[in-house]
Description:
By secondary structure, the chain is mainly alpha-helical. Helices cover 68% and strands 0% of the residues. The chain is elongated and about 40 Å long. It starts with 11 loop residues before the first helix and ends with a helix. This is Truncated transposase.
Amino acid sequence: METFVKIPQIDLPRYINEMIETIHNRDFDEFSSLKRTI
Length: 38
């Protein structure tokens, strides 16, 4: 699956940081839920 996101050039660093935080938080949440079940 491909995802395309249009990002305004002016706010590029802010959008990149938000995407990284979102991905990190999502992955961390999945890991935490797995850890609790073990």
